[in-house]
Amino acid sequence: MSTDALPEDWDILREWLPSDLLERARHHGFLRRARGLEDVELWLRLILMHVVGGLSLEQTVLRAAELGWVELSAVALFKRLRCAQPWLADLTAYLLAEQQRRLAQAAWPRQWRVRLIDASDIHEPGSTGTSWRLHYSLQLPQMVCDHFELTDASVGEKLARFVFARGQLVIADRGYSNRPGVAHVLRSGAEVLVRWNPASLPLEDSSGRPFQALPWLSRLRVREPRERTVYFRHEGARFALRLCALRKGKLATERSQAKARRKSARNGRSIEPETLEFARYVMVLCSASADALSTRDALNLYRGRWQVAPHRIKPPQWGTPFQPGGSPIGRPPLFPSAASAERKVCIVVDLSGGSIRVIRG
C-alpha cells in the first residue's frame, strides 16, 4: 500500500452508504460482541483497510493506532470480520438497489435465485504457473458467496462441480460453455444464461442440421438484439435454447478482435477468420422463456454480471495481504465476508463514476 486514504475519500464513500448504518449492523448481529466499540463506520473502515487495502490483520490494527482511530488486537478484528458477512451483504444489496434506482435499470429478475459461477487462479510465491484454483458461486444481487471449493490447478472449470435446483438462474462465462455443463444445469431444473463458445458447444437447427451461425449473425444491426431457437444434444437427449445476440459497435469490435489476436499469438497459433467474425457479436445462450426474460434483458443481465476475482490471488496463507480481486482464504469462514466487502467497494466506485479511488483506509 503506497498511500493512506485521505479523509475526504471516506466522506465521499459515506455519502453512498445508508443513513441507518448502525441499525443495520445491530439487526444483523454485528455488534453483539463488540465490547464497547460501537462505531460501525470505524469498523467498516478497518474491514475495508484489511480486505481491500492490502494490509494484514496485524498491519491494519497497527495502522489504526498510528492514525489515532482505535487500539485493538488483530484477534478482535478477526472476530469482527467473521461475523460481518450478513451486514456486508445487506450493504451490498442496498448499494445495488441504489445503483438500479439512479441508473434507471430494468427490474431484477426476482422469480429466480440468480447464481454467478466462476473460478480464479491462485499463484504461490515464485511459481511460474497456476498453483491452485478457487471455484465459487455468488448469489446476485446480494453478492453472497454460497459455495466455494479450492482445488489444484489440474481441475478445470465445470458446471458439474456445483449443485443446482429448480428456481435458480445460473450465469456463467464462455469457459463453462460446453454440452456436459449446460446439460447438467438443465437436468437439475435450473435455468442457464451462458456466453456461447461456438468451438466447445456446437448447435443445430430445428431440422437437426449443424447450425450455421455467421449467416444469421451477419444480418444483425448494431444495438438491435435478436434471438432464435437452437438445439444441442448430450447423452441421447436434445435440449432447446435461445441464442440471443447483439452486433457490437466499431470500437468494441476492434477491441475484441485485438484480444482474440493476442490470445492466438500467445498460444502460437494463427487466428482463424471465423474467430474474427464471431468477435463482432455478443452471443449468449438462455434457457429461460422470452416471457420471463426478454432478449434485451438476457443480454443486459449477462453484461451486468460481476466478474469474480479478475486479478491474481495471493497465496492461501493466514496474514497474507488481501489483493484487489482476491481473498484471505487461509481460513474458509472469512471468505464470504471478504467477498462481500470487496464487492461493496467495487459498487461504490462504479456509482461515483470514477470520481474517487478505491478506499484503502
Provide key terms for this protein.
disordered C terminus, 361 residues, elongated, 8-stranded mixed sheet, 8 strands, 2 domains
What is the strand and helix layout of this fold?
Elements: H1 7-15, H2 21-27, H3 40-51, H4 57-66, H5 74-82, H6 85-103, E1 113-122, E2 132-140, E3 144-152, E4 168-172, H7 179-187, E5 191-195, H8 213-217, E6 226-234, E7 237-247, H9 250-266, H10 273-278, E8 281-286, H11 295-303, H12 335-351
Parallel strand pairs: 1-4, 4-5
Antiparallel strand pairs: 1-2, 2-3, 5-8, 6-7, 7-8
Helix pairs in contact: 4-5, 6-12
Beta-strand segment tally? 8
Radius of gyration computed on alpha carbons: 22 Å
Biggest sheet strand order reads: 3-2-1-4-5-8-7-6
Low-confidence stretches: 1-8, 306-332, 349-361
- Sum up the overall morphology in one term: elongated
Please provide the ordered H/E string of secondary-structure elements.
HHHHHHEEEEHEHEEHHEHH
Largest sheet: 8 strands, mixed
The structure class reads alpha+beta
Describe this structure in words.
- With 361 residues, this protein is α+β, with helices and mostly antiparallel strands.
- It folds into 2 domains: 7-105 and 316-351, no CATH class; 160-168 and 180-299, no CATH class.
- Helix content is 36%, strand content 18%.
- The protein is built from 12 helices and 8 strands.
- It has helices at residues 7-15, 21-27, 40-51, 57-66, 74-82, 85-103, 179-187, 213-217, 250-266, 273-278, 295-303, 335-351; strands at 113-122, 132-140, 144-152, 168-172, 191-195, 226-234, 237-247, 281-286.
- An 8-stranded mixed beta sheet has the order 3-2-1-4-5-8-7-6.
- β6 (226-234) and β7 (237-247) form a beta hairpin.
- α4 (57-66) packs across α5 and α6 runs parallel beside α12.
- It is elongated.
